[in-house]
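User: Earlier you gave me the apo prediction for this protein. Now I'd like the version with flavin-adenine dinucleotide bound, so I can compare the two side by side. Same sequence as before, with the ligand SMILES added.
Assistant: Got it. Here's the input I'm using:
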Amino acid sequence: MKILVCITHVPDTTSKITFSENNTKLNKDGLQFVIGPYDDYALARAVEIKDALGGTVTALNVGLAETEATIRKALAIGADDAIRINAEPTDAYFVASQIAAIAQKENYDLILMGRESSDYNGGQVHGMVGEMLGIPSLSPVMKLDIEGNTAKMAREIEGGKEYLEASLPLVLGCQEPIAEWKIPNMRGIMSARKKPLQVVEPSSDETLTIGQNYEMPAPKGACKMIDADNAASLVELLRSEAKVL
Amino acid sequence: MSVLVFIESADGEFRGTSLEAVAYGAALAKAQGSNATALVLGNTVDASKLPNVGNYGVSKVLHVNDDRLDNGIIQAYAQVVAQAMEKEGANTLVLAKSSLGDAVSARVAAKMKAALASNVTELPDLNAGFTVKRSVYTGKAFQITELKSENKILALKKNAITPEVTDATAEVEAFSPSLSDADFGVSITKTDKITGEILLPEADLVVSGGRGLKAAENWGIIEDLAKALNAATGCSKPVSDMDWRPHHEHVGQTGVKVSPQLYVAVGISGAIQHLAGVSSSKCIVVINKDPEAPFFKAADYGIVGDAFEILPKITEAVKALK
Ligand SMILES: Cc1cc2nc3c(=O)[nH]c(=O)nc-3n(C[C@H](O)[C@H](O)[C@H](O)COP(=O)(O)OP(=O)(O)OC[C@H]3O[C@@H](n4cnc5c(N)ncnc54)[C@H](O)[C@@H]3O)c2cc1C
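And here is the structure of the complex with flavin-adenine dinucleotide:
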């Protein structure tokens, strides 16, 4: 089983997001960067499948040198080697084109990634890669078992899930509870330093969107406190003041 | 150049968020001096309802009468949508962001080399090129994004437009795209889905419970209030992790992002990852026994106290209102 796991390098979910340079750039000062939480699920499942069936897991990230600590963490969790495509991940089409170019050469059985990145929440890259490679793509996948050349999966839909089967190769956008997040152990961290991390230049530079500037949501007004003994009065406030009932 | 709107259905009806997308597509086409067409796949919605899509502003509905499309087969759907865009000469696709919509629109984007913006929150600005405002960093900020290419796809966040509903109807045209077996390479073996209930991403009213409720069997007070309000039920991540509630009810950064008029949070502390999923709610009510719970900072109304005492009182007051 030859598995590619695509990871994003994103601010930790507890981060307070601010912008600099006239609201055109994310202010990275003091931010802790991590593997995207959904990508982390994909990686954990990939390592489990490799442990059960044999094979290799390659971690891939499109990013500048600043992402290497995040990539090393993927190696510590259990990826065997890694590829960094040396470019700013400007838009989903650009990132998908880079992944597809690598995948065309390598013939992976499975290409896994998170259902969406936690910075832009687009949920687009897996579908684009699938289309570019001419193979099926599915997301958000919450269960994945491999039997021979067949993947048995569950995919979340609004209000429930559907169970699916398809032949490999596949591109999957993953989410919990496909696996439990893995925390790297000391041995993993030591061995990650020696695992190969190949840096390649991007195969194209085409993007279809441009992020111009950012805006912050309007600040919330103060919270109106209601006495617990008078809880029922909430309903009248929701009706006549907030006008939501 | 015109606009195509992709419509999804649930429970034998068009989805509310898809009808919003129809209104959005119609408004966009009007601003561009072109027209908008809606696309319906499969036969899960009774054919007699197809003309009603016109209530939301389009004059034509393309309908693919093919039972194989009753299930959302992603590759086949992407084929149909791309072919419909070509047939209609549409350079812009509009759809509601959803589990299926995301998966389909990404493939269409790669096929058509279309610039795709997701979580769009307003009509585009056409004054200088084509820019949209979209929600990023899981609700913590917005980005103004320019769509550069000729073909464009807009995946809308709920409430991107308030539809004006009229009694105009649309002409229905049958559309027969060419599909091959390869488009149906993925088979759906089973579907487990709630029926007759309000879907969380669509809901205008949501009652959500956290670990403060202490056990799955205590969910009755949440369900009673939800029923009285005709609201959907949600929960925090630990609650679905512990299997107290099904996974599709999990709200937050790693779960469903909701945009209701009213979000009632009961026994949820208000961790930043939970708040990320509720920040576009119009009004937030927090009920928590800890006055220091961080959720109060994000709330419009707050009650400090024991949910087991407070919630039944609120449910009674809601019933009295009706
Ligand atoms: C990468 C990552 C992603 C995450 N994504 C999500 C996500 O998408 N969604 C999410 O929800 N969480 C998410 N989390 C988890 C999040 O950090 C919190 O742990 C979680 O939201 C806490 O859930 P809770 O508020 O139900 O539980 P707790 O934090 O345990 O809060 C329970 C609350 O109930 C109150 N309470 C107790 N008894 C009563 C009572 N009788 N009456 C009234 N109030 C009572 C307490 O005062 C407390 O405030 C994520 C975490 C990580 C690390």
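For your comparison, keep in mind: The CA atoms of residues 109 and 116 of chain B lie 6 Å apart.
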